[in-house]
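JOB MANIFEST
job_type = single_chain_structure
chain_count = 1
residues = 290
[input]
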Amino acid sequence: MVRIIGHRGARGLYPENSLLGFMNVLKAGIEIIELDIVFSKDSIPIITNDQDISPFFCRDSKVEFIKDKIKISALNAEELYTNDIGRFNPETEYGKYFPEQIQLDGVFMSSLQELLNLVQLPEYQHAILLIEIKSDPDILDKDRKKIISVLAKQIKDANLINRVIFHSFDWALLSQCKHHAPGILTSYLTKTIHDDDIDIQVSNWISSIEEVQNPSAIPEKIYEAGGSIWCPHFKEITKDSLSAAKKYNLLVFAWTVNEPTDIDIMIDLGVDAIVTDYPPRVKNSSHQKG
């Protein structure tokens, strides 16, 4: 059966990238959770998707939605922890995409270390973390080395090397793993098509790879880079590109698949895992087909 990966926990149901969401998804039997990392001013890996504090669902200590553009890297971790991410701003488009998301107060931004501590507990011993590392495309290689070194040390200290996958659009960043985190698997993200996907609308990531017109050519590049997983946007997956991935013994994780029809297509194609905001939908489709 296809593996299910809870995207940002499961942002269709819970506040995204929240410990609350991660715990609920794991308790529901989903063993792989995807999350995003951005570094604070004091070099602490913070679980959040964007380089800036999100105006879509972040409220400050006065419980008011953030309006100013504030970089995560401009604030120390202790300042970031005061941001409540439990509700989305009803005046933005974000909420229209996730009408089932539970709305709560007192759900705060957290660090990677807090999640590592959580999954070391016996009840979460089977959890696997797919950690998307966000980076500025203009950063220097020495900064990429530092990012990987810091993350690798935290994961090694938590004895979670075998339960973590590094995941990024920044292929140059992932290349550092071979030297500084050789025991950690790497997942290469791609998006070669252009549309109005919500992930693009609410995120400011910029892929650092060259655009490849033929998706079937991507697996070979990932193989040559030493990757274990290709994680393409689901709309760019074809039988040919999937066959190419299998030729190079790559696992294929499709992102972000939410609609039942698209979920069925991915299962029928034979992808190894589906990244989704709605894990129950994939579980239902998988059981029906199984």
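[summary]
The beta strands are 3-6, 32-39, 45-47, 128-133, 164-168, 185-190, 229-232, 251-254, 273-276.
The chain is about 30% helix and 15% strand.
exit_status = 0
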